[in-house]
Protein 1
Amino acid sequence: MSIITCPFQFTSLSSNKINYVHPRFPRSTVVFRRVLAGAPPSEHSFRRYSLKARAQTGNNGPLEARDPLVVCFGEMLIDFVPTTSGLSLAEAPAFKKAPGGAPANVAVGIARLGGTSAFIGKVGEDEFGYMLADILKENNVNNEGMRFDPGARTALAFVTLRKDGEREFMFYRNPSADMLLEESELDFDLITKAKIFHYGSISLITEPCKSAHVAAVKAAKNVGVLLSYDPNLRLPLWPTAESAREGILSIWDTADIIKISEEEISFLTQGEDPYDDNVVRKLFHPNLKLLLVTEGAEGCRYYTKDFNGRVGGMKVAAVDTTGAGDAFVAGILYQLATDIDLIQNEDGLRNALEFANTCGALTVTERGAIPALPSKVAVRNAMLKTVA
């Protein structure tokens, strides 16, 4: 084998790989496969692998058994949000890039509140994918369960913000890396360490991710992990409305905690009144511990086997509702992971839901999902101002 002069400094050699250090990235050592009579790795390749190495190291240290860990499973992507509200995608003059994906939003939301969380999912082996892994690490979310696909891109979503702050989506997934996560790539050790395992329905749309999703839920259930489900209906991603309904309901009876919106109640019950308690109770299966219905600015409703009620929301000026429901989920799971007995204590549950409502309200005051997720201090301060 011949060594060709290049910007990389050759540092070590084994039977099947060469280690290089690039002078512009002196803190990273990247391993490349031996290339017979070929050029050394390019600066672009080095930067790509350097980002991956940085994103996959560090994490939060070892997870201990006492940690009330919440593991979130599913998609992580890049949201492109218009800088001007009330315009169509074609009319928008510019877009703000923001990390997103409902399960990842929840993981970051929990960590930002001071909880312990991890994310399991797949992104592209591209700069967006490494950026997302790095964002998780920067937000103290364990990312050891992330995988990188060399043959598919990280998912993108363009989000239209109407004048009322509500959203319309255009997705780029043909297929995206999150759809290609395989059961063999799951970190089962991380899953079985969880106190709560949280997921949505988007990972049920196509194989092989569907099988990976089912296997992950089964593994968590088998060791007594609480299962949290947010269907997060995105009809444009499903082949048909009926396939969406069947897919969402296919794992309904396994969950311990379910969060749904008014729109999702109407969809799942095929047009019945989402404000009728009797309609909502139809969705309450025998093993369910807590059913939560979010009502946007109006707050939420809660249903257990023994009681039900409503907790009012905080009134704010909505800029972007992206991630509001995920912030709410993060707020309630953060508290349930520490004290699951809240489900049996109505006063305690109401206080926890007031906290979760505030998490959601604060998130809509900024653009993007992850950038807008609040800290525990911000939530407490907002609640104190409301009381005052």
Note: The first helix runs from residue 43 to 56.
Protein 2
Amino acid sequence: MMEKWKMLNGPPERYEVLRRRIYSNTKEIWYYVSSSLGSLANEIEDLKQKISHMKTMVDEHYRSLLRDVAKLADVDGYSQWRWKEFDSLSRLVEKRLLHAQNPPDCSKAKKLLCNFVNKHSCGYGCRVHHFIKCLFVAYATERTMIIDNPKNWKFTSGGWEKLFLPLSDTCTSKDGDTVSLWPGDESIQVINYNVPTPEYAPKRLHPPYIPVVLPEDLAGRIKVLHGDPAVWWIGQFLKYIFRPQPSTTILFNEFAKRAHFQKPIVGLHIRRTDKLISEASLHKLEEYMYHVEEYYKLKELNGEYDTKRIYLATDEPTLFDEARQKYPEYDVIGDPEISKTGSVRKRELDDSIININIDIYFLAYHCDYLVCTFSSNVCRLAYAIMNSLQPDASAKFTSLDDTFYFSGQVHRLNVALITHKADNPDEMDLEVGDEIEVAGNHWDGYSKGTNLRTKKTLLYPTFKVTTKIEVLPFASYPNITLNTETWKEENL
């Protein structure tokens, strides 16, 4: 009887939040100890061997503790509820999107015309973020999103619909009785929305619905279900726009056969070329593979002894030979020919766009874990889509640089749960309830941000804060519901 109760009612929010907090804090203390031992070894040559032994033991303790905490979700009796709630929430969001995007009478429908006006360099991943930014605004205001200037988006010579299903099957006309620029008002039938909105533009021109903000009517449920609610929310919209055409599915299947794609597998996304000019630092292959090794050591701790595999997605073809030479015990899956189309010179060609989508698809849909740099739009896209496909994949990644963010987000806030007294001039004082605008996690036990109370931008211990879930009223689609009573009757 208790098992059936758990399937129907789910876990208390405080239990899920605490379980995930223990997991994340386990990682944070490992980041701190690992980084501190590394610094100590560099400072004191005579201690290097002893510190190396300590590091090995710390890593073993870490993996053991991480495994035990992760198993809580397997033995607490809520697993079936998590899948049921995930399915229910996902289908509800998809049903609302289908409703908004397919009005019965296009001539009367309220519309949002999405116009891409970026005159500067903006790659494919960047444009996709702007693309779904429009869809968020359309959903929040219950309008049908229509691409206003397809050529500017450069998705392929055949447009978005060459690779993916159209956003709407019933409404593509831009016409309307009344037209206005964003923000307009509810009485206007057609609103023109230009992206990206310049940073210097008046506040009213910046829509409030951009992630990481969540809809008020769903935020509570998403928070219980997922470790990073904003990622789950973004993933649902990406899953909608990335519905492949039948011809695209054939391309994916052909690649899987050609590359001999198998599981288990870790997705390794290594962005080089132009990304290193101004946006990111160089990370050697060994830095990525350290975390891949940790993943497989954790599997072995669980008694799983599988062939070690990586799916290598990169714009640097020479990494394939390097990976096979340095890590002969790994099965390296991928295609160097795809990497060649990732160069700056070829990146806007049709083949390159198709190949980028192959990488996104296999990283998101078929990899068990991701190791990458979140400074890359492509990896963040893949990670968000991965989180749209299962109840909670928020811990199934390692980023070597940034934390997850949405391109164009206003900010991401942490809230202090524990007071902190600064030990040095680089740290900030914290009072319980302080809000910090996050600049990034340094993966050494500390994050950097701006304390909104003191206005100081400094470091703070990551374990002493939690993410603030920001919520706003969106359109609530009261007429779009799911029939959950049948499920309850079958399981009572």
Note: The chain is about 45% helix and 15% strand.
Protein 3
Amino acid sequence: MGSLLSGVSFKEPTTVEDCDSTWETDSEPEAAEPRRQEGVCAAAGGGEEPPEPPAPRSGRPRSRCSAALAGPRSELTAKPKRSFYAARDLYKYRHQYPNFKDLRYQNDLCNLRFYKNKIPFKPDGVYIEEVLNKWKGDYEKLEHNHTYIQWLFPLREQGLNFYAKELTTYEIEEFKKTKEAIRRFLLAYKMMLEFFGIKLIDKTGNVARAANWQERFQHLNESQHNYLRITRILKSLGELGYESFKSPLVKFILQEALVEDTIPNIKQSALEYFVYTIRDRRERRKLLRFAQQHYTPSEHFIWGPPRRQKSEGSKASKKPASPVSIPNSHISKHKKPKEPKNTSASGSSAGKITEERKVEFTKNGEENDQDEQEVNCDAVRQNNSEKNSDTDTSQLSKSEEINDNSDRKEDASYSKKDDENMNNDCENVIFYTTLLQKTYNIEFP
């Protein structure tokens, strides 16, 4: 492709995201869920590098909804993946091949001289006029010969035919000034479109089905090496002054692949390669939005805008509060039960706890008159605290229905108070004694 520049400061992209700037400056809101048009048939997967080669399909290609009439067809279930190599290749093309030096006279203008009918293309030794006049309509020759395409559609990169020379910026400018070369270039473009079953209908680049579209679409759907040729043709159109011709052709291919279902195997290459030969990111967005509306299954469409990340503030507000280590006995004292004012449930659970405590008290038999005085003295205080606790619990129930976050805050504040109460063992005894008195009407001696 050229000589590498020494001491280049340009950083090579390392991910697909680095290579794809399609949605970089898009300030529009995220697109709604893509909708399928009524009566539009689904398209199967496929592409330039399919995981498995699709089985050839016999008979005439299916036009709009003909697949539905023929019966159900299985879809590829594997979600496609973006190819980094494809993204990097198209990135370099759209950015004029950074990191490579352009030598003005390195190819001696051989591409221009070929188009001026002064030299034949190598290695076949055939002139451009013979290709345009004798090869046109010879689909067998155009299909099986693999050396002419690099000469008909030259690029600033090396192809499979090493006899073909790369374009330079100087040669590109000279090519655009030569009417004879431009005329033949457009004839070569029309010849290849016809080979694919497409025809050029006006000077703005709009295309339509050719008369032989059914036969040629079936061939195009099964002969996937032609997808590489289409990518090269699109690149060459952009290099030689026909960038505006690319969008109509890509839109037509997407329509046939996704909506009409006539060339479904091309859809992967169309989305991974053809769309990204277009340098204007606004045009790429239009094509990708169109494809997203008709792509099936819709959840497998991976070429749309990246999902917007939630702000850090919203994440923090939804983050649950860190749990506080609280003993079970204190949770039962202040934590609001799941079913408010279910006294029977709370009484039974408290009864189990107090019954265990009662056994311990009777076993030890260590209660004395001083303990009785402390219990009787503090019983009133405990009853008051429980009344306050009931009031706080009802208030907490109301606040929890309004905002779950406030519930966590109040629980945390109660937890702090409970931790302070833990330091006083006497209050624990008072608490359980009071529960026993209230639940079982037990009077301690």
Note: Residues 1-7, 27-76, 310-354, 358-412 have pLDDT under 50 and may be disordered.
Protein 4
Amino acid sequence: MFKWGCGLEFLLVLCGLELSWSCPRHCICYTAPSTVSCQAHNFLTVPEGIPPDSERIFLQNNKIHRLLRGHFSSDTVILWIYSNNITYIEPSTFHGFTLLEDLDLGDNRHLRSLAEDTFHGLARLNALHLYRCGLSSLPNNIFQGLRNLQYLYLQENHLKFLQDDIFMDLHNLSHLFLHGNRLWSINQNTFRGLRALDRLLLHQNQIEWVDHLAFHDLKRLTTLYLFNNSLIQLSGQCLDMLPALEYLRLNDNPWSCDCKALSLWEWLKRFRGSTSSVGCQAPVNMVGKDLKELRKEDFPNCSTAPNSESRAQTHNLSGTVNPSMNRSVVIGSGDQTSVVQPSRPSRSRNCTKPRNRLSKGKEDNEVHHSKEVMADKDNSSSDFTEGGKHDHTSPDGTVTRRKHKCAPRTTMRPPSGVQQANNRAAISQSLLHVHAIFVALITTYVGSILR
């Protein structure tokens, strides 16, 4: 036994660790940093004798039932107690743990409830693991004061509802895992305050409804998973509030691809990130189709969805446009409009490339006209000045292009017919000169002979 202990100490020293001889039975303890490892020993309670200066405590894969005040010291930085049988945590267990950064209570399936002040005062907490804890609800202020928290794991519980502002204090949260619960709705202020959130995982819930303002604070969100829920529709305006979004998963929902899906369809057409398929399950003629692959003609008799890009870019009778576009100013009213483009370096236009000239139905004329104007504007700034000629929609629904878009090309040489005529004239003149010289030479030669 002594030899085994010496061998273990030698190995720990080789790893840069110093063995601590004050250690609970069946545990391994060492210093620099001070660590207690008591994992997988079938402990029913937190073992006694944990050194009070322990910074890292590993108690995972045991059978511990209760956590009480005094089990650990306030010097603890990392505390892992996942995969136990915890059913009760005394509210004051972690009070005063101002150095705690990583707390893993996950996979304690019979925990089921937590006191409101369980985590209060953990000002340095960076990661909190509460996955698979049998939680059916969360107290209102359970995350109060956790302003340094970056990772919150709440997946695979039984949560059905999230209160407004429950994450309000989590200013630095970057990852929020809520998948595998029983959530059925996302309200306007469910995620209020999460301005640093990067990833939001909501898949494998029962979500039927998402408020159109639900994501209004998530300006940095890059990843949103909503697959495998019960969503029939989702507002495009809701997703418009995610300017940094790169990855979106919407598959395995019972999407209804009728007029209610028009705003989502328009948003998907504009989105440049990665998306999953959006399989239609209604109406009957759309079953099996992907909403992303549909065309405008697949939405007959559907008016343009409010707050969509089409409405944002289309000027109304007062000549105003969506100010968020911040690209051009439309002046005038009705059909007489002129667009003033902010000054910027002009770019050359490729005048040889053919452009599509498609006829649109009456209900889409104004939208088509606006998109053509915006596309043209992006290519050349010199074309858009007051008094210039612009595209207009004719009564028959045909978009008429404005004239003289491109600057005249510099003439490199005359047309071929003119060039050939000029060449012939030059040759004829040269032959006349040669003939005159030849005649003069002959005359001179003959004269000399006669003398």
Note: The two ends are 146 Å apart (CA to CA).
